[in-house]
């Protein structure tokens, strides 16, 4: 590595005492530090002095005329790290022997993915990235079906590092650190929603090699899409076929039933009535909010220990950590915000201590699901596990 240089970053104060500091990586990608309320770090951060290759051109996407779905073709993702040893962890703070993505010590760090599935539209806006050749015009443009249709995959993919530690997950963090991550999610949701061409923002965490995780470092991701995702389009259709208060009705239905796992002042966690996965739990806020950015400080304060208890309960089901996808479904940026409520949907294919549910012919090919575990049974097991969790 070259000689270490230090810069003093200005502070932007967020909720719960969290401080945000922004800088750039050597190739112009944005890097954002979020400092805990009880941080031991100062305002100084090391400068990223690596010599990096130019950023790749933004990927392209192709329309599947049979479904209308858009498929991003992002060949640069083939170059991403695959289960590196701890001493070469690309999400750890840089050392003389590890030229990682983050040049300095941190509590929580967020940066633009080096090999994104969705990339920038305007070269001048983001420090040297190639401009998009053919970005989507609008939602109407994307909805029009046709053979051979392509567009540039305009959007943004960010990595959210929950900790500088080499191993762990969201559930292994302290309540203070969990609160910092929630503040980071809220900040990034608001910022990404303001970018030109963004239609939906999706924070998520993949946990476990069984899910396909290629880094053991505790981290999640945020995708900012140029379209409304297929799953959300189906949700909007369901709301149109039923009523605008569908989520309020779902919450009341589940709160009155046997599948509630955990209930707080502002949130309820439950196994859904028609659960697909052996482990599946949803979380809904008690009032309508379209996304994490719309949560009040009181709601965010409750969510940190609430979510930790839920995740640790999932891990307590078995003697080894449970693989999962934790998906924060948020309302689209420009449509459906009065009806689509923020929800967490956590799913795991683990159906026994040493068995996984694999999507075979019926589920993978036809989308016709067969549940292995009755939702009421799953809720009882998970409720017992959560009740034993101590933070």
UniProtKB/TrEMBL annotation:
Under the heading Pfam families, the entry gives: GalP_UDP_tr_C, GalP_UDP_transf
GO MF terms, alphabetically ordered: nucleotidyltransferase activity
Taking every annotated instance into account, which residue ranges of this chain make up the domain Galactose-1-phosphate uridyl transferase C-terminal?
257-383
**Which keywords does this Swiss-Prot/TrEMBL entry list?**
Carbohydrate metabolism, Galactose metabolism, Metal-binding, Nucleotidyltransferase, Transferase, Zinc
Segments forming domain Galactose-1-phosphate uridyl transferase N-terminal: 149-228
Write down the chemical reaction(s) this protein catalyses.
Answer: alpha-D-galactose 1-phosphate + UDP-alpha-D-glucose = alpha-D-glucose 1-phosphate + UDP-alpha-D-galactose
Q: Which PANTHER family match?
A: GALACTOSE-1-PHOSPHATE URIDYLYLTRANSFERASE (PTHR11943)
What is the designated name of this protein? Galactose-1-phosphate uridylyltransferase
What is the source species? Microbacterium flavum
Designated gene of the protein: galT
């Amino acid at each position: 590595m070259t000689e270490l240089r230090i810069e003093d970053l200005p502070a932007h104060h967020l909720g719960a005492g969290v401080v945000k500091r922004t800088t750039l990586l050597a190739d112009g990608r944005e890097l954002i530090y979020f400092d805990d309320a009880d941080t031991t770090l100062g305002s100084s951060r090391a400068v990223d002095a690596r010599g990096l290759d130019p950023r790749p051109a933004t990927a392209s996407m192709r329309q599947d005329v049979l479904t209308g779905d858009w498929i991003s073709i992002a060949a640069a993702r083939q170059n991403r790290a695959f289960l590196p040893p701890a001493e070469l962890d690309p999400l750890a703070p840089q050392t003389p022997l590890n030229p990682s993505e983050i040049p300095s010590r941190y509590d929580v760090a967020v940066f633009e993915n080096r090999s994104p599935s969705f990339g920038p539209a305007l070269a001048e806006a983001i420090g040297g990235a190639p401009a998009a050749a053919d970005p989507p015009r609008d939602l109407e443009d994307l909805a029009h079906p046709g053979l051979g249709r392509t567009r540039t995959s305009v959007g943004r993919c960010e990595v959210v590092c929950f900790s500088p530690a080499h191993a762990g997950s969201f559930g292994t963090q302290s309540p203070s650190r969990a609160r910092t991550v929630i503040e980071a999610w809220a900040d990034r949701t608001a910022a990404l929603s303001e970018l030109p061409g963004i239609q939906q923002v999706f924070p998520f965490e993949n946990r476990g090699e069984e899910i396909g995780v290629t880094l053991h470092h505790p981290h999640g991701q945020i995708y900012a899409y140029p379209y409304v995702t297929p799953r959300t389009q189906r949700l909007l259709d369901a709301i149109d076929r039923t009523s605008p208060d569908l989520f309020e009705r779902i919450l009341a239905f589940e709160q009155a039933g046997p599948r509630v796992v955990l209930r707080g002042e502002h949130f309820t966690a439950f196994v859904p009535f028609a659960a697909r996965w052996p482990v599946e739990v949803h979380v809904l806020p008690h009032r309508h909010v379209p996304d994490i950015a719309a949560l009040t400080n009181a709601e965010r304060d409750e969510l940190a220990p609430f979510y930790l208890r839920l995740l640790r309960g999932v891990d307590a089901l078995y003697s080894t950590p449970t693989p999962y996808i934790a998906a924060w479904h948020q309302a689209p940026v420009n449509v459906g915000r009065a009806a689509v409520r923020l929800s967490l949907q956590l799913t795991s294919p683990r159906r026994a201590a040493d068995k996984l549910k694999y999507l075979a012919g019926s589920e993978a090919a036809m989308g016709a699901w067969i549940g292995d575990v009755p939702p009421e049974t799953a809720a009882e097991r998970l409720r017992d596990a959560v009740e034993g969790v101590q933070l």
